[in-house]
Each structure stands twice: as C-alpha cells, then as structure tokens.
Design goal:
NADH dehydrogenase (quinone) (non-electrogenic) activity; 21 helices; 531 residues; globular; two-stranded antiparallel sheet; 69% helix; NADH dehydrogenase (ubiquinone) activity; mainly alpha
Amino acid sequence: MTSLVQSVDWLAIAPPTLTAAAALVVLVTDLFLPAARKPLLGWIATGGLALAALSLLPLLGGHRATFCLAQPSPATAPAGGHSALAADVCSYVADPFALVIQFLVLAGALLTALLSVDTVKEHRLPAGEYWFLLLSSAAGAALLPASRDLATLVIALEVASLPAFALVGLRRGDRLSSEAALKFFLSSVVATAVTLLGVSFLYAATGSLHLSRVAHTLTALPDPRLATLAAAGVALTLVGFAFKTAAVPFHFWVPDTYVGAPLPIAAYLSVVGKAVGFSGLILVTVRGFPSYAHVWGPAMAVLAALTMTAGNVAALRQDPDRRHGAVRLLAWSSVGQAGYLLVPIAAAGYTGDPAHAIGATVAYALMYAAVNLGAFAVAALVARTRPANRIADYRGLYARHPLAALALGFFLLCLAGLPPGVIGLFAKVTVFSAAVDAGLGWLAVVMAVNVAIALYYYLQWTAVLFRGAGEGAERPTGEPVGEPAEAAAAAPLRAAVPATLTTAIALAAVLGIALSGAPQLVLRFASGALL
C-alpha cells in the first residue's frame, strides 16, 4: 500500500525556496519603506538570488530526492530505507541535470537584477512589484528542472510565466508594453491550456502523473483505445512546451514582447524563459515519453529546422534604421538559437544514448545565456541615450565607448561561432556532432546553412560598431520629430555609466572570455547534466 506521508529534504529544495522567501521579504519590506529608500529592494532581491545560487554548492556531486511516495517491498527495500521504486517515484529530484539548469536560471536572474537596478529607478517602475515579480518568476524557473511529475512541472511552468506577463506590461501608459504583455499572455494561456489537456489525457491513459511511472506504463498499454489517448496526450504536451520554447510556428509573440518589455526583462525572457521551456521539454521527452521517441524525435527535428531557419531569415531582413531594430534582431536571433537548442533533443530520439545528446543542449544553453545577457546589457547601455535603439545607433560605438563596443563585438562573434568567441564555435560543433551521431545528416546540413546565414547579420552589426559616427545621429526619413526620447538620440553616451550595468557587462564578458580560453570547462560541466 502506497504511503501518503512524504519526506521533505529542505537542503534539496533550498534554491527555489530561498528565491521564493526573498520574494516575500521584498513584498513585505516594500510596505514599510519610504519612496526615497525603494532602491534598497533591488539589493535585497540581488542578495536573495546570490544566496539561492550559493545553496547549490552543498548539492554538487549528489543525487537527492524529496516529496517521494514510499512503496516499500520486502524483497527490494533495504532495512531503514526506501525501496528502489520509491526512489523513482518522487516529485522533486536534485540531480546533476536539475543543478546545472538551476545554476543557469539563478545566474541569469542575478545578471538581470544587476541590469534592473537602474532601469527601475530611471523608468520609474514600481519597485516593490517589479522585484517581487522577478523573484517569483525565478523561483518557478528554479523549481521546474527538478520537477519529476507532470503536475509539479505545470505548476512550476505557470509560476515562472505568470509574473513574467506582468513584468512585460509594467511600463504603465506605454502602448508597446501593454500590447506586448497582451500577446505574451494570450499565447501562454493557449500553451497552458493545450499542456493541461495533454496531461489530463496522459493521466487518464496511465493512471499516474510521475514521469517514471508514466514512462513505464506507456511501454505496454493494455487497450488500443488507451494507446490512442496516450498518443494524443504526448502530442498535446509537446505542443504546449513548444510554445514556451518559441519554436516555429509558436514563436509569433517573441519580437513584439521583447520590444515592449523593459530591456532587462527581455534579456530575462531570452535566457531564463528559454531555460524553463527547454528543461521542461527535455524532461517530458527523455524521462516521460522514451517509448514514443519515434514520434517526438522526428517532430523535434522538423521543429528545429523550421525554427532556426525562420529566426535567422527574419533577423537577416531587419532594417538598420527601424525603431527598436537592435532588440528585434536579438529577438529573432533568439528564435534562431532556439532551433539550435532543439537539435540535440531531436537527436535524443534517434540515439541509444540520449543523455549525451541532452548534454549538448545544456552546453549550448550555458554559452548562449552568458553572451546573450551580455548583448542585452550593452543594448541597455546604448538605450540610455538612444531610446529608439536602432542598429544604426550603434555606429561609432567604439569611438564613444570602446570597452562596450569590444564587449558587444565579442558577444556577437560568440553567437556567430567565430573566433575569438571560441566557446560559441565549440557549442555549435557539439550540437552539430549530436545531429551527425544520431544519423540526422539532413538536419546537420540545415544547421550549417543557417549558421552561414547568421554570420552575415552578426558580422554586419559588429562592423557597425567600428564605423565612423558621422551618420549615427541622422534621423531616418519619416521619423517623428520632437519626441523627448529622440531628442537625446544625437547626444554622446553619458560618461557616467551605472556601476551595476558595468558589472553586468563585465561579468558576462569575463565569463565568455574564460570559457573561450577553456571551452572544455563548460563541456565537462554540461556532460555531468545527464538524466
């Protein structure tokens, strides 16, 4: 008889718990702080995220599980311990995969917090709401990779997503912000509804929500009608997570959402939001539906090809003089990068060693997180005096702010996979190798073509940084005149750059340079993230 008493390992659940506790501290502290001291909330949030990240250290090298259903068996259960089955039937598992993704999430949220400290003050965003929502979303994102049942997965997904809707639309009175929040909300609600429908079908077919039991039951369903129901549940669950990863054709919300959101939140969605979607997709495919690899493997391969192609072609067509063109290019670039991240997941459906393929996705995600956050940080610096944030506004950035230009150039070369961005090259080779090893030669060819397409727009933007600044202040034809934001467009960048923004750019650059000097570190780190 299954016991309903569940053990709780507080050390294992420390990362999401500490993040959630910091959110509550911010919420309560906001009630008592006068307006002049609201910036203190940002430092409380940053400290909470740093503490949550440090709580990962005692968990390294271990495998801890909690919220388990104890089902002792006299033949298999050791004296004083759980049975082998009980170890698999757990709702929360702090294994190497979960720890690596939690590190990515918390480090990304920490860099987002550094970017946000001055943004909240300068844009007069409600500080209490902003920091509470950011921490709440980060708590859900940290919970998801450790989730091992479908109910906890969906709850973690929604805890990560719901605060993000409000963060995108937090610039009250801004039409772009409201429109972006509405599009993001509607697309995510549809994704959640589809996911819940798929989960309900799977529960009806298997009688369980735990991924290990679902995987075991799907291998031998006694009734053909249940097999049909389970196949529908698998397909709907995959479609729901495809929305979250911004895979084509579920990507339409990305460009407008990134443009309408505050820049730190756009950076957060591009990294942490993707980590949430991809970790959930990995768990349901590799852990929950291994017997349906013949279904989701080809589906992921097609999605990968469509996503990388649509993202790169759209980025290639961006007008340098279009308002918010730089953010739109980064948004479409993130869609293309999502296609690369899908390749190893597709490969996992074709190979007998899916863990190796998943390690390639994790390695690529770690590289992408560091350099993409760095690119958004430089975009935030430029936006301080050029709110239109056109690609043309970056002309001559090296003359005005050489270190920022060199940093952005390095980040773009990493995303392109060119030296000196060696870590980007190694990450792409790792993903390419995963496709070839799985026998997906056609997908490897599609990826190679897309990497060549991406080279053009990444190098084009990099070249703009070092050109003369004479044309950088010119207003494109038809640009509205007299807007306060545009009045500052011709002004040089401020000499005083916020220390938090400088720190965020420096951290991303140092991490990228260190990994480019020793790319084997991230590959070895990711190789431990095996399910």
